[in-house]
Write a structure and sequence with these properties.
29 strands; single chain; mainly beta
Length: about 350
């Protein structure tokens, strides 16, 4: 999630075999098709999701949730709904309900009625909702937390369960990413007194820390996602790190179930000063073909196809904040100034 400038980047890639270091190439196997359509200009887009009814839901930096279909826009904010404060995540369930995580609680929208859950009317420990994941039974899991407070919450529509370091194996309170993998196991990115990957499989909790990975990691508001082989990727966000980087590098970590190994690729840079080189923002997406998309700080983006990296040549109007895919032929790229639509042909 979310925004501003980065000085260092990490990608985490858990796989079961060793690979050679990936290198950027001028004529990659995966050819980036530069965006050709620009919609919703002027909107600072942070998340994009597509529901089963063909509606695109978008949340913006300026506290708006946008319903977009066939060029028609409907905007929800504090003027016409309970939505208030910063919006951190949006998700939909199988019934078509929209779930909104913001700095003032969790909000459900069923298409007609908004319902807000916060510390005043529910057991959630903190009003700020950073990340939401919904399982196959439409049970909503979300982070209700901040530094040293709160934790993970489970809500099945009737019953609530709250997990904190005091009553569970959760290694810290503050959770910035909640996501299910392809095996339906829940993964958390926790950042309290260090950074931890936490996997919850039934009653088993598995914690991976810096010692497991092999070197210090900083995942400020990092994101987690999985490809079709259930390999985990994470794009850490180093927006608070202020030291110079002599050679910007994308680090990839591999995990075979026993140990982590790393590979890396140097980001192409033509600037005189290293700290002005393009660096990923922590925004990551895996498309239908398992290509990994990541936004860079110079209003461009990169794509990794499992073998090679390729990088877009043309700058967009604003920095890339998110990616989404409505079908096999398009990628929607959310930026600080609207959405660009790019092709995905290989």
């Amino acid at each position: 999630m979310k925004y501003t400038f980065l000085i260092l980047i990490l990608l985490v890639f858990l796989v079961a075999c060793q690979k050679e270091p990936a290198k950027p190439i001028k004529d990659p196997y995966y050819q980036i098709n530069e965006p050709h359509t620009h919609i919703l200009e002027g909107y600072f887009v942070e998340d994009i999701i597509f529901d089963q009814n063909g509606v695109t839901w978008i949340n913006t930096f300026f506290e708006d949730v946008i319903k977009y279909k066939s060029g028609i826009i409907e905007i929800f904010n504090s003027n016409n709904s309970p939505i208030s404060g910063e919006i951190w995540d949006i998700q939909t369930d199988s019934k078509g309900n929209l779930w909104i995580g913001c700095s003032d609680g969790l909000i459900k929208y069923d298409g007609e009625t908004f319902t807000r859950f916060d510390t005043s009317n529910s057991p959630i420990p903190e009003d700020v909702i950073w990340s939401i994941a919904i399982d196959d039974n439409d049970v909503v899991w979300f982070s209700s937390s901040r530094a040293n407070k709160g934790g993970l919450v489970k809500y099945d529509g009737t019953n609530w369960a709250v997990y904190t370091p005091e009553n569970s194996d959760l290694p810290g309170n503050h959770i910035t990413s909640v996501v299910f993998d392809k095996n339906k196991d829940l993964w958390l990115l926790v950042e309290d007194h260090g950074y931890y990957f936490t996997k919850i499989s039934g009653d088993n909790w598995m914690i991976y820390d810096e010692e497991d990975i092999g070197f210090p990691i900083i995942f400020e508001n990092g994101e987690l996602c999985f490809n079709s082989k259930n390999e985990l990727y994470s794009a850490p966000n180093y927006k608070l790190v202020e030291w110079e980087i002599p050679n910007p590098v994308l680090f990839l970590l591999e995990y075979n179930g026993i140990q982590f190994d790393s590979i890396n690729v140097t980001v192409p840079c033509e600037y005189e000063y290293p700290n002005t080189c393009p660096l990923p923002h922590g925004h990551i997406y895996i498309d239908f073909e398992d290509n990994v998309w990541i936004g860079l700080s110079d209003k461009t983006y990169g794509v990794y196809n499992g073998k090679n990296w390729s990088f877009s040549q043309n700058q967009l109007v604003g920095n890339v904040m998110t990616f989404a895919q409505p079908n096999s032929s398009e990628i929607w790229i959310g930026t600080e100034d609207g959405i660009y639509i790019a092709g995905t042909e290989q």
